[in-house]
Write a structure and sequence with these properties.
GO terms for molecular function: structural constituent of ribosome. This is Large ribosomal subunit protein bL32. With about 55 residues, the protein is of the alpha+beta class. The relative contact order is 0.14. The protein is rod-shaped and about 60 Å long. The protein has a domain of about 25 residues. It is built from 1 helix and 4 strands. The longest helix is centred in the first third of the chain and has 8 residues. The strands form 2 sheets. Strands 1-2 form a two-stranded antiparallel ribbon.
Length: about 55
């Protein structure tokens, strides 16, 4: 099995992981209720795409 010759430094490790940061969630406003919710998710009232689903 292959073994690394040297330990990876903290800087190199952090540079490799840098594109994996968390982005802000996309928040959209429901046209019927006016509530803010995450995109492609059912709102707290049970509406999705202007229709009652729950």
């Amino acid at each position: 099995m292959a073994v690394p010759a040297r330990r990876t430094s903290k800087t190199k490790k952090n540079q490799r992981r840098s594109p994996k940061k968390l982005d802000q969630p996309n928040v959209s406003v429901d046209s019927k209720t006016g509530d803010a919710h995450m995109s492609h998710r059912v709102s707290l009232d049970g509406y999705y795409n202007g229709k009652k689903v729950i």
